[in-house]
Write a structure and sequence with these properties.
With 181 residues, the protein is mainly alpha-helical. The protein has helices at 6-19, 23-45, 48-65, 75-102, 119-129, 132-143, 148-155, 159-180.
Length: 181
């Protein structure tokens, strides 16, 4: 077993106290995890309002299901999976709503920036053009520093599948950046 950080130990403790029904533990979990879950929802939806709605729905599911979480050390992956599922639902509803509203396929969520000079802007634009699942896996691996095992658990897929999806997401990002050159 890897050495856990004090932050991971605190999260585990708060989950266990939350499972015991302590309201203060729930409050502290929300305080600690709200920014991360909100950022995760935003990466998926590319909309601040949608990210807030998705995160709120996710917290309701987290609070309702916390007692059924068998291993408190798995909270991070479990919470991210809930947010990802809620965000996917939002994307599907939004695509259907836009198709119904104008009879055309949903335009890219991407707000492509014309001739970006800044390398970071180019990377952000290239990432935004990726499929939501590709953005998700790249953000979990690089921004959230999740291991392949944690991502596999969060997505309920084998670790080998995560490796494959990460490989393809990197290739898509590389191709997107090459198109910009």
């Amino acid at each position: 077993m890897k050495n856990r950080t004090p932050s991971e130990v605190l999260d585990e403790y708060l989950v266990l106290r939350g499972q015991a029904g302590e309201p203060e533990a729930f409050r502290l979990l929300v305080e600690r995890w709200q920014p991360r879950l909100l950022a995760h929802a935003f990466r998926y939806t590319q909309s601040g309002d949608a990210a807030r709605d998705v995160t709120q729905e996710s917290w309701m599911a987290i609070v309702k299901g916390l007692s059924r979480l068998d291993d408190a050390t798995r909270f991070r992956a479990w919470a991210y999976r809930i947010v990802a599922n809620k965000a996917r639902d939002w994307v599907r509803r939004e695509q259907a709503r836009r198709r119904a509203a104008d009879g055309a396929p949903m335009p890219d969520i991407v707000d492509a920036r014309a001739a970006a000079q800044d390398d970071m802007a180019r990377i952000r634009d290239a990432v935004a053009r990726l499929e939501p699942d590709q953005r998700l896996i790249l953000s979990w691996f690089y921004l959230e520093d999740m291991s392949l095992r944690e991502i596999a658990e969060a997505l309920s897929i084998p670790t080998g599948t995560v490796k494959s999806r990460l490989f393809h997401a990197r290739a898509a990002l590389r191709a997107s950046l090459t198109e910009d050159s």
